[in-house]
Amino acid sequence: MNYDREISGFKFAMLRCMPFYGEVLLRVPIIANRKVRTACTNGRVIEYSPLFFMRLSPAERNFVIMHEVMHIILRHYVRCGKRNAVLWNTAADIIVNNTLKEMTSQLNKSGINFKCPDSAVTGQVFSSDTTEKIYADLCRRNDESNNKPSKIKIKTGWNREQETAPPSDIIETEVLSGTAAEGLGDGEMRALLKNLHNKYRGASGSSYLPFEISGALQGKRVRWDRLLRDFMVQEAGDESSYLTPERKYLHMDLIIPGLGTRNEKIEEIWAFVDCSGSVSVEEMREFLFQLRSITRQFKCVMNICYWDTKINDVYKNITKDEEIEKCLPNHSGGTDINCVYGWLRENRVKPNLMLILTDGAFGCLNDAVFIPALKQKTILVINNESVYSDDFKRIGKTARI
Q1: Angle at 359 between CA 343 and CA 376, to 5 degrees
Q2: E strand or H helix at 99
Q3: CA–CA separation, 169 vs 41, rounded Å?
Q4: Parallel, antiparallel, or unpaired for β 152-157 and 301-307?
Q5: What is the pLDDT of residues 42-96, one digit of tens each?
Q6: How far is 78 from 49, CA to CA, in rounded Å?
Q7: Is 160 helix (H, G, I), strand (E, B) or coil?
Q8: How far apart are CA 228 and CA 379, in angstroms?
Q9: Which of 64, 84, 285, 374 has the fewest CB atoms within 10 Å of its CB?
Q10: Confidence band, pLDDT 50/70/90 cuts, at residue 235
Q11: Cβ–Cβ contacts within 10 Å for residue 343, how many?
């Protein structure tokens, strides 16, 4: 059976009822593929099994389509990183299905048939929960090292849990039929989401944005260089000023603008740059040259470390602009922010101030390695406006590039 007409009708119905989701749906190819067991996505396209769709009602088919679209919107395929794929997919399904169940009543009232299939994975979710938080809970309840569990324990309520079969809609991507080029890339999708959020803010359905994306799209993060300058001025002391000096101070030995004389002056700054590929070369260059400008202004030392799943390249005592051109990453792999804290521990480095440049999809923090005391000395610089994680607040102040 060909479901193209039905899917097209659903897309335009969503465009009228919830335009934010409707516009995303119009840009995502949805293709039949008999090799797929149910339905799945690789972050660019959605493919479904016609045999699976035949067993579902029209309302359940609409739910499944929106389920896969939500995975794309939340970038679950990209954010998985080195995590246990089965547990991550389960956490992602719990977040997605909870959001869609909240939308069900409004969609049905608007004339759109929408129903959660009985086989859908559900669990306890609070309004401020993120996929990372649910994943961490699943890791505590299950063996994280088991990559192919037959059953997964899920929290369903206070002191209640149940076992369920693992979902497979993000894991099946090796069977996709090679149509990925037709869909939007990750960067294009991020830009689209931001534009749609601004366009449809307050419109019907906008209240159903999951917390982990609505927080990122609604929040106005300060630029990292402004936050860093404020931090440096504060640490340098109250005598610091970047305003035009008043004439009554000119007879004194105080030089303004300039730095105070408190002992808290920052001696060196450590910059940890994600070289996994999520930060572009242009973004790296802009970040490093701006940082060099600030360190020169405050007369402090600049150190650069490139990381993916480990610290690969370390460049110390950068004092000249031309030296930055030689400080390039020589490796590129996965993403695991815990390697930064592991390296600091192993090398007994205690930064006065550290910046971490990444896209935010860096894995979940390992409490055995993480250093909470560095929170007050860390600025997390994010180049991705459509991602949010509970770990941001634990790491330090968050700023945008």
Answers
A1: 55
A2: helix 85-109
A3: 7
A4: unpaired
A5: 888 999 999 999 999 999 999 999 999 999 998 888 777 778 889 989 999 999 9
A6: 23
A7: strand
A8: 8
A9: 285
A10: low
A11: 17
3-class secondary structure, 347? helix
Report helix, strand and coil shares of the chain as percent, to nearest 5.
45, 15, 40
**Residues 6+ positions from 336 with CB-CB distance below 8 Å:** 81, 82, 308, 309, 310, 362, 363
Task: Evaluate the omega torsion of the peptide bond into residue 58 and state whether it is cis, within 30 degrees of 0.
Answer: no
The predicted-structure confidence for 114-148, as pLDDT tens digits, reads as follows 999 998 999 999 887 888 888 888 988 998 888 88
Instruction: Report the Cα 268 to chain-centroid distance in Å.
Output: 28
CB atoms within 10 A of CB 390: 17
Shortest CA distance to 383 belongs to which of 294, 257, 280? 280
Of 366, 369, 374, whose CA–CA distance to 397 is shortest? 374
Region 209-226 average pLDDT: 74
Q: Which amino acid is located at 20 in the chain?
A: F
Distance CA 134, CA 153 (A): 12
* DSSP-assigned letter for residue 258: B
192, 27 contact by CB (below 8 A): yes
What is the residue whose two structure tokens read 């190819």?
Answer: 29
List, for residues 259-306, the tens digit of each pLDDT value.
Answer: 444 445 678 999 999 998 878 888 898 999 999 999 998 888 999 999
CA triplet 40, 216, 24: central angle to 5 degrees?
40
Query: What does residue 302 show for φ and ψ, rounded to 5 degrees?
Result: -115, 130
Q: Which residue has the tokens 């193209």?
A: 4
C-beta atoms surrounding 393 within 10 Å: 12
Non-local (6+) Cβ contacts of 81 within 8 A are: 334, 335, 336, 361, 362, 363
| DSSP H or E run through 322 | helix 321-326
DSSP 163-229: EEPPP-TTGGGGG--S-GGGSPPHHHHHHHHHHHHHHHTTSTTGGGS-HHHHHHHH--PPBHHHHHH
Nearest to 35 by CA among 14, 49, 24: 49
Nearest to 30 by CA among 14, 16, 282: 14
Both tokens of residue 86? Answer: 């089965």
